[in-house]
Amino acid sequence: MNPPTDPEAGALRRAFHSLRKDDRLDCPPVEPMLARARRATAAPAPKPGTGPMRLLFRSLAVTAASAAAVLLVARWHSPAPADLRFVGPTALLTPAPGPWLDFPARSASWSALPSSALLSPPSLTLFPD
Amino acid sequence: MNADTLLNELASLHEESWGWVRGCCGGQAAEAEDVLQAAYGKAASGRLHHTPGASSLRTWWFGVLRITALEHRRQAARRSGLGTLAREHWQEWFGTPTAPAFPVDEAGTLRAVLATLPRRQQEVLQLVFYHDLTLDQAAAVMGVGLGSARTHYARAKDRMRTLLAANPHFSHEPAH
């Protein structure tokens, strides 16, 4: 049913009329709003490096720093010999020597290894005399 | 139509735009002012283009205002999601934290009653009875089909008739 010909709509129309009167009372003036809109459009564009790009670079830096921290902690907890742990950044970047460096080449199986070989700290002597 | 011409034409619809935006914002005047300002900003930026043959300026502008209000409400909900959640739980567990403000005038009562309806029903009622749009035009503003707008209109009208009849502010009988 088309609303203007709707016979049941009288009460609603009257009710909304009071709402319209109420709205008209606190309607903000149009000119200041339009002036603000025009001013905002005429404002210069933000400098490069601010806004979303800045956020992106900041999050990249945080990610890189946290990744470096994780690598550092992981390296310190790896089974590196004690004398190499605190010698400096070069040692930190070298791969951690595993216990297999101590394995005698002639050992045929794990059971042939002396128990001390598994428990003792690994050494870096790759080619013993 | 360039941005400046468009703004000048929209100025003539300002009062109606204000009423519509206020309805879209649940009667909140401060929020409605922000939304209307944002919509004028869009128009001033030249991003909006109205094609005269497709719809009237008023219908098109009301659609823009409706979408801007929805965007604004969505952003606000995202910003204060945790706060809203906490407030809802507070009300659920401990009752209303402050005494509710009962509207004392007819307009305030109507706003409170309207707020109990679903959003689409509020929109169609406001467009038809406040802005005197036909259901065709209301459907275009709301972005729904005519059949859907008719359904919302019929349900909203039934609901409002019941709610207003129970309210002492609206004691007058509907015209038959």
Question: How are the elements arranged and paired?
Answer:
The complex is a heterodimer of chains A (129) and B (176).
Chain A: H1 10-25, H2 30-42, H3 52-76, H4 82-85, H5 89-93, H6 115-119
Chain B: H1 3-11, H2 14-24, H3 29-45, H4 57-79, H5 81-94, H6 106-114, H7 119-130, H8 135-142, H9 146-165
Write down the Rg of chain B. 18 Å
The fraction of residues assigned to DSSP E strands of chain B is: under 5%
The secondary-structure element order of chain B is HHHHHHHHH
Oligomer: heterodimer
Number of strands of chain A: 0
- What separation lies between the terminal Cα atoms of chain B? 45 Å
What general form of chain A does the structure show?
Answer: elongated
- Our measurement of the CA-to-CA distance between the termini of chain A, rounded to an integer number of angstroms, reads 104 Å
Overview of the molecule:
The complex is a heterodimer of chains A (129) and B (176). Chain A has 129 residues and is mainly α. Chain A contains six helices and no strands. Chain A has helices at residues 10-25, 30-42, 52-76, 82-85, 89-93, 115-119. Chain A is elongated. In chain A, 9% of the residues are buried. The mean pLDDT of chain A is 70. Chain B is mainly α and 176 residues long. In chain B, 70% of the residues lie in helices and 0% in strands. Chain B contains nine helices and no strands. Chain B has helices at 3-11, 14-24, 29-45, 57-79, 81-94, 106-114, 119-130, 135-142, 146-165. In chain B, α2 (14-24) packs parallel to α4 (57-79) and α8 (135-142) crosses α9. Chain B starts with a helix and ends in an 11-residue tail after the last helix. Mean pLDDT of chain B is 81; it is low at 96-102. The A-B interface holds A 2-4, 7-16, 18-24, 26-28, 30-31, 33-34, 36-38, 40-41 and B 3-4, 7, 11, 14-15, 18-19, 22, 29, 33, 36-37, 40-41, 43-46, 105-108, 110-111, 125-126, 128-130, 132, 134-135, 153, 157, 160-161, 164, 170, 172-176.
Question: What would the keywords be for this entry?
Answer:
heterodimer, A: 129 residues, mainly alpha, 6 helices, B: 176 residues, 9 helices, 70% helix, globular
